[in-house]
């Protein structure tokens, strides 16, 4: 049973099998610097804080009957006035002398950009099953983080982690949503313990849109100081994040603001930068991880701002970027990111060549003469991947393990068993691991088995998110393989390696061509070019798949996806008829090119790439749409750039231009 | 209907499957009159030779996997403001044949549509057939979809001097003032301006009322052009 | 209610509740779990099966509505229609394979754009659609 009030006092619950009063659970509180804890209760105790919050549980032999029982439960709610937003996190990033830089500016620009609240929407929703076997609690969950789930359940249920065995079945996509420990998982586990029976919960799409996690509900207000020669001297920004009713586990309410705050203008050579990033609560679904996390918002705001500066200075957007990207890697940014490698000007050059930029601009001019609304948008970005334990602790993120592990065992018959702490969420990670084993050791693929998703068999680690697959996970694998090889792959060899990876930074330059229908304002992406540098390419097929899928997701996030709440706190987009994701005609063939700036921080030189496509699209597609309607004077700042928003922006521009009556 | 049952928004005591009544399927032609059985699926219709405007509207009805099961009668009884069939029925002045145990009656499409998601079908009635006459000839049929197969953001259609705006939030609406202007030989610009004031629209998560009126008006003008 | 129908060429007979969906019949009673449930409101296409030769949403069909019908699920279609390598997580696979089989069966040669339009009723969150479209275009050839 879930609350249908956004904020209410919870009274009596009649007819339900299980409420908060029946369970003695520890709340999964995340503590850290700059963070005010606000744990998400497994079952609401005396208050509900968002529509969809779990209030009680019933069970039956099958789904149909369970829902029949649920229909007979009565809950007393006493609706309350909304609570004012609570400050949950605040941190400042940056350095340099901001005042000095602004005093030297020939141009100061102020802009605000609004990203949209969105839902990760893996095609397979959540599912969890728990039962007792041999005195231990076995939990099957569609999760990206088996060891974190074990850790969370152990704490919530007051059990030793060793008493819990987490297994992961084949997963139908995760995209960050499945990287949390959820109330439903705790409740199912608790119920299995209580009833001594196998308990299963399969989420439906409405629940998944309503009460799993949301993302990106952020606003960025920026001020930029620019010189007449087109040098961006300094940027001051406020990143304001609505993180919903509770702090998610394990990432906490700091996830979006911290990742967004540290990514503002990250690839650019500024003299000074100051970013204040903050999180506040609301009566909405808690905000967690969704492919690209805060980097999406940061790149969206940064790249829109760069284009705004280009427009003011009447400089070509690509040229402006050339004048401002960092050129002296490796180096640390003003926000404290240790950029490991990358040739940023080369990325821009390759994009220009690959896209046929000059030709594209001529084509745009021709089409505009014919009355078409066409736009070309570029984006330049870098992103973090493979965050390790040391880094997480430094940032005050206490609950994410941060290390990745791999165990290599040579069986008696010479077969190789590889156990990874990662999870295959559909990105083909196990296959990438297998290919690497074959390459490193020269053994036939048929003699290699890669096992993931078993908290007993697989060494403890972090799971699969923040594109750590190509970083710490492969690092641990390669080290374990090399050690096993040093022992001549003797049967009985059993090596486990744990790695605390350092963050590495892939980068990319993307370009999108968009046409907007002049009558209906429906935008269409005609062309997409992605020049990527994710370090050494370990598995070209997997990388291509991630970039294509990432771009498609990014197109959706810029043009279609929005989790809309009404004034009453009800989610108005709770089905796929209202929450729109891209379908085949929405996604053009992605033209890809790869540069390789090996990272000195990983053995193979590889960096993550799983989120790059999405992050780049936030800049390239947004800029292309804005460019398409710019000749009409329309200004866009709020995602998604839907036909209605484009219409409103064009209308607003028309009204500004119309001479006053009278 | 099934999603409504699954979300327990509707809890009927009994459901009767009309799929086994062959007399409710298929089409009959009598001169320029076309009678379409209410249980004829959209895909069955697509395989037949139909008046231009019907053939043009059908591909917009959802996706082919929906059209294989979705019926013309179902669409009309459901009366979704964004659906194509309710709009076509009003535009073409269709007659709807309803049957009850006590007898049959014919209702004009304009009288059948009472409001969004509300048709005039009585609880003891069955929609038997939809009769179109004179549906052939030049036409204009346009709708705005964000993605192919989506419910329309707004739509407009023109046939034999009749004008309909649909997917505006309200049920499909005739535009009598625009039709009058059309007869008087109004210019495209005048027509579009008048349509924008005549169209009644509401906003939702997909589009604002203003969008529907403005873009709907542009579609009306283009529909007229196409039907010329 | 009694129900008799043919599934993947094999007759099936049993007692079902009227409200049991065809999708749940296939998955829970027959353990044909290739057909997936992504939304249960007819939008995502993951549940698509062939019902008397036409592609249909099994989540929107009551099992009893398929009385006497011939149902084909992804398990009975040639695995080479769209190779596994075209998918990533594979959750959308059944819907695409069945829908593609239905489209290909009419013998029409469609352009990439036409094909994409026809497959707009199938959602994939992983691949960006390109490898799936390529595979179906190859089958068309």
Quick description:
Chain A is α+β, with helices and mostly antiparallel strands. Chain A has helices at residues 63-71, 98-103, 146-157, 183-195, 205-211, 255-261, 293-313, 317-324, 344-355, 357-369, 389-394, 429-441, 472-486, 540-559, 612-629, 643-657, and strands spanning 8-14, 18-19, 47-48, 56-57, 74-79, 87-95, 107-114, 127-133, 136-141, 164-167, 199-202, 218-226, 232-242, 272-280, 331-332, 338-339, 373-382, 404-410, 416-420, 448-451, 494-499, 507-516, 523-533, 590-595. In chain A, strand 18 (404-410) and strand 19 form a beta hairpin.
Keywords:
heterotrimer; A: 662 residues; alpha+beta; Aldehyde Oxidoreductase, domain 3; Aldehyde Oxidoreductase, domain 4; five-stranded mixed sheet; four-stranded mixed sheet; 24 strands; 23% strand; globular; B: 228 residues; Uridine Diphospho-n-acetylenolpyruvylglucosamine Reductase, domain 3; Enolase-like, domain 1; 2 domains; five-stranded antiparallel sheet; four-stranded antiparallel sheet; 10 helices; 34% helix
Share in β-strands of chain A? 15-25%
> Which spans of chain A have pLDDT < 50 for at least 5 consecutive residues?
none
Strand order of the largest sheet of chain A: 6-14-13-12-7
Quick one: overall form of chain A?
Answer: globular
Instruction: Give the overall pLDDT of chain A as a whole number.
Output: 95
Task: Please specify the SSE layout and strand pairing.
The complex is a heterotrimer of chains A (662), B (228) and C (141).
Chain A: E1 8-14, E2 18-19, E3 47-48, E4 56-57, H1 63-71, E5 74-79, E6 87-95, H2 98-103, E7 107-114, E8 127-133, E9 136-141, H3 146-157, E10 164-167, H4 183-195, E11 199-202, H5 205-211, E12 218-226, E13 232-242, H6 255-261, E14 272-280, H7 293-313, H8 317-324, E15 331-332, E16 338-339, H9 344-355, H10 357-369, E17 373-382, H11 389-394, E18 404-410, E19 416-420, H12 429-441, E20 448-451, H13 472-486, E21 494-499, E22 507-516, E23 523-533, H14 540-559, E24 590-595, H15 612-629, H16 643-657
Parallel strand pairs in A: 9-10, 13-14, 19-20, 23-24
Antiparallel strand pairs in A: 1-3, 1-5, 2-4, 6-14, 7-12, 8-9, 8-11, 12-13, 15-16, 17-22, 18-19, 18-21, 22-23
Chain B: H1 2-6, E1 27-30, E2 33-37, H2 42-46, H3 52-57, H4 64-67, H5 72-78, H6 84-91, E3 95-100, E4 103-108, H7 109-112, E5 113-115, E6 118-119, E7 126-133, E8 139-144, E9 154-159, E10 162-166, E11 173-174, H8 176-183, H9 188-198, H10 209-227
Antiparallel strand pairs in B: 1-2, 2-7, 3-4, 3-7, 5-6, 8-9, 9-10, 10-11
Chain C: E1 2-7, E2 10-15, H1 22-29, E3 48-51, E4 54-57, E5 70-72, H2 93-104, H3 112-118, H4 130-140
Parallel strand pairs in C: 1-5
Antiparallel strand pairs in C: 1-2, 3-4, 3-5
């Amino acid at each position: 049973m879930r609350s249908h009030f956004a904020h209410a006092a919870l009274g009596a619950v009649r007819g339900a099998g299980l409420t908060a009063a029946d369970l003695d659970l520890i709340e999964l509180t995340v503590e850290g610097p700059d963070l005010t804890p606000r744990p998400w209760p497994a079952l609401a105790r005396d208050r509900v804080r968002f529509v969809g919050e779990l209030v009680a549980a019933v069970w039956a032999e099958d789904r149909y009957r369970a829902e029949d029982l649920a229909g007979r439960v009565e809950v007393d709610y006493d609706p309350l006035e909304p609570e004012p937003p609570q400050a949950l996190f605040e941190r400042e990033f940056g350095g340099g002398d901001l005042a000095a830089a602004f005093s030297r500016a020939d141009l100061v620009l102020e802009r605000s950009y609004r990203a949209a609240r969105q839902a990760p929407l893996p095609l397979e929703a959540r599912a969890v099953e728990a039962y007792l076997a041999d005195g231990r609690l076995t939990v099957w969950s569609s999760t990206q983080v088996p060891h974190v789930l074990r850790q969370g359940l152990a704490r919530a249920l007051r059990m030793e982690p060793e008493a819990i065995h987490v297994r992961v079945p084949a997963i139908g996509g995760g995209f960050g949503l499945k990287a949390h420990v959820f109330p439903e998982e705790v409740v199912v586990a608790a119920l299995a313990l209580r009833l001594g029976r196998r308990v299963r919960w399969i989420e439906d799409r409405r629940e998944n849109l309503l009460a799993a996690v949301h993302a990106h509900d952020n606003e960025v207000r920026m001020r930029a100081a620019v010189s007449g020669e087109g040098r961006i001297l300094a940027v001051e920004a406020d990143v304001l994040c609505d993180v919903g009713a509770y702090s998610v586990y394990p990432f906490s309410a700091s996830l979006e603001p911290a990742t967004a705050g540290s990514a503002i203008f990250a690839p650019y050579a500024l003299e000074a930068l100051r970013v204040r990033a903050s999180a506040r609560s609301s009566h909405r679904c808690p905000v967690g991880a969704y492919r690209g996390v805060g980097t999406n918002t940061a790149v969206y705001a940064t790249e829109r701002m760069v284009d705004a500066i280009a427009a003011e200075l009447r400089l070509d957007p690509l040229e402006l970027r050339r004048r401002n990207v960092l050129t002296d890697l490796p180096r640390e940014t003003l926000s404290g990111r240790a950029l490991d490698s990358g040739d940023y000007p080369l990325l821009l050059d390759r994009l220009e060549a690959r896209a046929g930029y000059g030709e594209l601009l001529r084509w745009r001019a021709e089409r505009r003469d014919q009355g078409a609304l066409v736009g070309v948008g570029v984006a330049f970005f870098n992103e973090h991947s493979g965050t390790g334990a040391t880094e997480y602790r430094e940032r005050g993120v206490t609950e994410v393990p941060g290390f990745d592990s791999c165990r290599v065992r040579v069986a008696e018959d010479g077969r190789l068993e590889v156990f990874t702490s990662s999870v295959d969420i559909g990105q083909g990670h196990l296959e990438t691991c297998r290919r690497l084993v074959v390459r490193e050791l020269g053994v036939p693929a048929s003699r290699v088995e890669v096992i993931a998703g078993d908290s007993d068999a697989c060494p403890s680690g972090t799971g699969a998110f923040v594109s750590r697959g190509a970083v710490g996970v492969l690092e641990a694998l390669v080290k374990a393989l090399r050690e096993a090889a040093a022992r001549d792959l003797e049967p009985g060899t059993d090596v486990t390696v744990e790695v605390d990876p350092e963050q590495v930074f892939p980068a990319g330059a993307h370009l999108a061509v968009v046409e907007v229908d002049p009558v209906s304002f429906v935008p269409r992406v005609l062309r997409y070019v992605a020049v990527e540098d994710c370090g050494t390419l370990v598995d070209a097929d997997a990388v291509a798949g991630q970039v294509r899928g990432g771009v498609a997701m990014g197109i959706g996030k810029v043009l279609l996806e929005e989790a809309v709440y009404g004034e009453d706190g009800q989610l108005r987009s709770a089905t796929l008829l209202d929450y729109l994701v891209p379908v085949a005609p929405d996604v053009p063939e992605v033209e890809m090119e790869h540069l390789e700036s090996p990272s000195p921080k990983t053995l193979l030189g590889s960096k993550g790439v799983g989120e790059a496509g999405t992050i780049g699209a936030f800049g390239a597609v947004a800029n292309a749409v804005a460019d398409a309607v710019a000749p009409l004077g329309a200004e866009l700042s709020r995602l998604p750039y839907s036909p209605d928003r484009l219409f409103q922006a064009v209308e607003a521009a028309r009204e500004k231009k119309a001479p006053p009556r009278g | 209907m099934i999603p409504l049952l699954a979300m327990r928004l509707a809890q009927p005591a009994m459901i009767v499957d009309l799929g086994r009544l062959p007399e409710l399927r298929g089409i009959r032609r009598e001169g320029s009159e076309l009678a379409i059985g209410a249980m004829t699926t959209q895909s069955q219709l697509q395989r037949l030779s139909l008046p231009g405007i019907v053939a043009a509207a059908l591909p917009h009805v959802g996706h082919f996997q929906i059209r294989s099961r979705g019926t013309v009668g179902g669409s009309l009884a459901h009366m979704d403001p964004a659906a194509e069939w309710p709009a076509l029925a009003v535009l073409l002045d269709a007659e709807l044949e309803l049957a009850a145990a006590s007898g049959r009656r014919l209702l004009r499409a304009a009288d059948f549509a009472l409001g969004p998601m509300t048709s005039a079908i009585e609880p003891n009635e069955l929609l038997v057939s939809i009769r179109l006459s004179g549906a052939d000839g030049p036409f204009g049929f346009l709708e705005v979809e964000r993605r192919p197969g989506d419910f329309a953001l707004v739509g407009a259609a023109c046939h034999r001097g009749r004008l309909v705006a649909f997917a505006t939030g309200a049920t499909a609406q005739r535009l009598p003032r625009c039709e009058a202007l059309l007869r008087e030989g109004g210019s495209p610009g005048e027509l579009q301006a008048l349509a924008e004031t005549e169209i009644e629209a509401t906003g939702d998560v997909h589009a604002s009322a203003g969008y529907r009126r403005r873009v709907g008006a542009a579609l009306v003008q283009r529909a007229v052009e196409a039907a010329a | 209610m009694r129900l008799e129908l043919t599934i993947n060429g094999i007759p099936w007979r049993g007692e079902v509740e009227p409200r049991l969906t065809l999708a749940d019949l296939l998955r829970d009673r027959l353990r044909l779990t290739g057909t997936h449930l992504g939304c249960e409101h007819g939008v995502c296409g993951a549940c698509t099966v062939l019902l008397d030769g036409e592609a249909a949403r099994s989540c929107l069909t009551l099992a009893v509505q398929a009385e006497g019908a011939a149902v084909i699920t992804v398990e009975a279609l040639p695995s080479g229609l769209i190779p596994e390598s075209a998918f990533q997580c594979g959750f959308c696979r059944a819907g695409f394979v069945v829908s593609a089989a239905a489209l290909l069966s009419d013998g029409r040669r469609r352009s990439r754009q036409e094909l994409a339009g026809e497959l707009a009723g199938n959602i994939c969150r992983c691949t960006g659609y390109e490898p799936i479209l390529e595979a179906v275009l190859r089958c068309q050839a």
